[in-house]
Amino acid sequence: MAHVIDHNDPSGRAVLVPNYASLNFVNPNFLHNHHHQVLVPVRFALNPAVVARIELEKSISLQQFMNDEGLVPSREEELRRNNVIRKLKEIVIKWIKRVAYRRWLPQNQIRAASATILTYGSYGLGVHNVESDIDALCVGPWFASLTEDFFIVLWNMLAKRVEVTDIHCVKDAKVPLMRFKFEGISIDLTYARLQVTTVPENVDILNPLFLNGIDETSWKSLSGVRANNSILQLVPDVKTFQELLCCVKLWAKRRGMYGNLFGLFGGVHLAVLVAFICQRNPGVSLAALVSIFFKTFASWPWPMPVLLQQGMMRPPHPPETRSLMPIQLPSSPHEYCHSNITASTFMKIKNEFRRGYRHTQDLLKSQFDWRNLFEPYPYSKSYQQFLKISLSTSKQNELGDWIGWVKSRFPCLLVKLEELCVLYDPSPTEYLDTTIQDPNVVFYWGLVPGRSYYLDLDLVQEEFKRNLVTGYKGLTGKMTLSLIQASELPKSLQLADTHQLFSNSSQLVPMYSNPAPHYFVGYFAPRYPSSGTMS
Ligand SMILES: Nc1ncnc2c1ncn2[C@@H]1O[C@H](COP(=O)(O)OP(=O)(O)OP(=O)(O)O)[C@@H](O)[C@H]1O
Ligand SMILES: [Mg+2]
Ligand SMILES: [Mg+2]
């Protein structure tokens, strides 16, 4: 809402008016304040009490819609997660005593030694759902090293626990981590070492006292926690931020826009975009914020960066780090969130913002229905040709690792396709091919007819295979690329696209496989050996 002064009104009356899409952004009759909020002369404004009531109704119906989706974790689910974190804290305390003992530290130091677990990512922001992982940072004292004590000693302790399955070390990522499931919940565990002996349970990692003499890897590992802290400090109302982010994440997932490795948005990108909107619109209802979100980003003049902390960016940044959609990393105001967005996915994202804008313009109308905004993207009806990427292994227990590895290389495949002038829509949804016996997963990426009608698939496949064999430590599975027509897509996918309108979207999820955790964190940046153009 914006306070509006009617300059024609001798009383100088101020009224509250909605500040979103149905009001023409460029209408010269309307004024704009410094928050880009629209100031509408009173003669054009709706009765503010009516507007407020409708907005409230729409906000409630949106909250109801989100609840009905069944994604909000139940009380039991929350307790399960709390319990997992409690157990992890106990494990790292045992671990650090053991490490102190092995390092021959004096008794008083062994007694004083402690480590802790801090959470960040969507769990730390309070926007996780039943499918989310827990991003956890283990904070240890000066004498516990990453290479030996974290990756060997702690790894061994975790691997022996009955609650732990699918444990991997991801040492060569930008932020090294262990990835595992604890009682079925996916955990990304990173490590930071502080120059202290005793790490308090709720250590304030923003306190410069703790940051003295910290090494570079630890500093990077702390960035997730710092990013969450900054976001939560910058938004005027945490609950509204959380609600808006949950809605935007659901929208992004339904529209095939969520997946950093697919050149799309990751959780951190959306968290910053949503924080940006909340920061500029304090006191605005949830429904109106959704509308403002789409209006803002449908017309955003990319590559102008989205900055949460103005004046902090060091311009100009070097061209090689220039992203098509630069979004400031709140933890390090001089950096952007890592992104794999390509020209193709940039186009897709812009189209989806515009669609979101169109669908939320008529928020105040009685026939407005939130289901339209969250309708799943109809791939089979949108493209005639698809790139089919089939991954398989001979044993089920090898499949998760293989899928994770290939996905970590998808940014290279995206770049290669773009080099060949192919425009695509990389759907992150995973399907199961029931016609083959081996454990498998299939991706279908829509191909947009572009400048080049001839795609040398053999060349792409050969180069991508070469890329896949470099650095993989597990048993290499199969990866094949083929081109198929929309009519050859699995029937489940085609049917879902035909019947999706106003059906219960949870039934639309195709034969979705839920493989083991991804091999690499989203912002690992692999190099493409032949061209070396990836960053
Ligand atoms: N591309 C990236 N650039 C910078 N930081 C990132 C990036 N990807 C992940 N991170 C950091 O790691 C954290 C966890 O990332 P993760 O991929 O688990 O996303 P998330 O926000 O937790 O969403 P989800 O619910 O999908 O897990 C982020 O909050 C961010 O701090
Ligand atoms: Mg996460
Ligand atoms: Mg994670």
Provide a short characterization of the protein structure.
By secondary structure, this protein is of the alpha+beta class. It has 17 helices and 13 strands.
Q: Your description of this structure?
A:
With 535 residues, the chain is an alpha+beta fold. It folds into 4 domains: 2-68, no CATH class; 77-228, Beta Polymerase, domain 2 (2-Layer Sandwich); 236-373, Orthogonal Bundle (Poly(a)-polymerase, middle domain), CATH 1.10.1410.10; 379-508, Poly(A) polymerase predicted RNA binding domain (Alpha-Beta Plaits, 2-Layer Sandwich), CATH 3.30.70.590. It is built from 17 helices and 13 strands. It has helices at residues 48-68, 75-102, 107-112, 121-125, 146-160, 208-211, 216-221, 223-234, 238-254, 267-280, 286-298, 343-360, 370-373, 379-382, 396-419, 457-469, 491-499; strands at 2-5, 14-17, 31-32, 38-39, 116-120, 134-140, 164-170, 177-182, 185-193, 385-392, 423-426, 440-448, 478-485. A hairpin with a 2-residue loop joins strand 8 and strand 9. The protein is globular. Mean pLDDT is 84; it is low at 1-34, 36-44 and 501-535. It binds adenosine-5'-triphosphate and magnesium ion (2 copies).
